[in-house]
Queue: 2 jobs
Job 1
Amino acid sequence: MAGNDEIRATAQGTAPVPLSVLDLVTVGAGRTATDALRTSVKIAKLAENRGFNRYWVAEHHSMPGVASSSPAVILAHLAAHTERIRLGSGGVMLPNHAPLVIAEQFGTLEAMAPGRIDLGLGRAPGTDGATAAALRRTDRLNEGADDFPQQLAELTRFLDDDFPDGHPYARIHAVPGPVQATSPGGVQSPHRPPIWLLGSSGFSARLAGVLGLPFAFAHHFSAQNTVPALDLYRESFKPSAVLSSPYALIGVSALAADEEKEARRQVLAAALNMVRLRTGRPGLVPTPEEAETYVFSPMEREFVDSWNANVIHGTADEVRAGLDDLQKRTGADELMLTANAHTAEIRLRSYELVADAYGLPLG
């Protein structure tokens, strides 16, 4: 079972806590999914070389501007292009999949990159209701969310290969996995992907606390709930074989640019993309030029202003100050940055600027 050393990390440079990356594999207008995935490899390599702790990808479906519908496939690709950085899902939406399938996928990833794989799990569909129904082959979507603790328990037992005698799944084994160590001549890796619970409300916060698991909160799209959820997690926490004390990570939208004006242009384009998504018109991430000429309705403008108020953006010094303040306000143990912009070069430059601002190591 994974322990503290596979979850906790040490801050690099002058950063107040470890810094990590959340990649939505965004596809900009005029770009392809191939372009987006190539950018992901570049960002992962940069993150590894500059001392970022983790690189996670998130499961989304039926969104033209987000090419991360298959986290396990993307993580396998990233594992082949990196050597040290931890790779994981932020997250896999558990109700969309059979627990055995996830155990097999992440057991395979662990075999590819031993000691570097995180398994972050969410209970939301990662899409709209109709797409979720197509994924799950049912229209009873609430069942998946309500059954999340039971699904989690089942997945954990598959990962640990410890169903009790008499259980219907006692003779079923997730491979690669611990069963290989008990086979004649078998040798098994000592690592097992640590489970993280993800959330944007109190449900997963409380569950992660009760189970003694690390918790990742989606501050980047649910900022108003961040402090209450983290407080609930810490209040509910019970020490476990995984963690002796709470460990909370938060996802943060952060974009640094050489000039403040460019950061504002890119953030506006990303906000327009969110406007379209929230109004049932999902598409590719628009260019800054398109966003600057778009005529926002009063309601859309209100949404954009509210959305961008929670995006830390500007010059490297401004972003560093914003991240420092957020960490102090929340007490987060780790900050996971997601740089949403139309242009690949802007996203790469953002992570480079943040690394420089905190004096993260080179190489």
Job 2
Amino acid sequence: MSSQENSEENLPSEQGTAHGAVDTVDDPFADPGLPAHKPRIQDIDERAAKRSERVVAFLFTLSMLATIGFIASYVIFPVDKLVFIFPFGHVSALNFSLGLTLGVALFTIGAGAVHWARTLMSDVEMPADRHPIEAPAEVKAQVMADFAAGAAESGFGRRKLIRTTLFGAMAMVPLAGVMLLRDLGPLPEKKLRKTLWARGKVLINMNTNQPLRPEDVAVGSLTFAMPQGLEESDEDFQTQIAKAALMIVRIQPDNIKDKKEREWAHDGIVAFSKICTHVGCPISLYEQQTHHVLCPCHQSTFDLSDGARVIFGPAGHPLPQLRIGVNGEGNLEALGDFAEPVGPAFWERG
């Protein structure tokens, strides 16, 4: 379609002659202005304003009560107490009460602030023209002068006692939050260094639950053992077996290279921790010809004929050995605990 065929109604109402400029009658971007302000009922009725004030005060009071409930729940409910709450089922009474009270405390503060702003604070529209963000030089100079004057008047530079105690107070306050880390769990104390093995503890075959005798361990075989007195029905069985799990291997005494290993063995029967020293996986793969054991998680390999030293993989140190002997009844028994902590290294390992 040519320009001549355009209808006149689509052409500008007025055309200028200078450089083809076009002047329009109506500004398409004219400021529409603001609608007339409508007062709220609280602005014209003091009783309504009082009601809103009471609602805000009620929400803030409820927040305070919820905070008190949070503290009381922390003190009252034991960590292991379970309660049935529909529809969640059995949940921790402590966790549920802490979450509920803290949620109510935070929500009511927010709800109270929003209700306060929407009903009682001024809502008159106050338009302002945009201006450069950067302050003029004279304003900057005035601000710096006022700051210097305020600092001088406060005596912060001269009052060393106030300055020192202020810094001390600000540094001490975060310690209150650090103290909460104490409740992340019980202190490990020396539990990571000790196991249930002790002098006189009989080695119990984990497959038969019977005491192990030297004749039960054939050359080239791999047997798993646990301390006498530990039962699978015990509440802390998993915690204890994770440190005390033992693997028993019988090697020809002449094939044992490490002198200490030979002394701590009984007639070629050696006992090493089953827990890998990399990340704590249970070791279960044994190669008879080489006397190597392999951790299935990350392929750390240990030589059981040479003090269980690491010959491949990411493990950082050998498997701890348990010194064993035979008691008067002919059963294999421990002659003490492991000489070093079992499993992966930890930050206070000595």
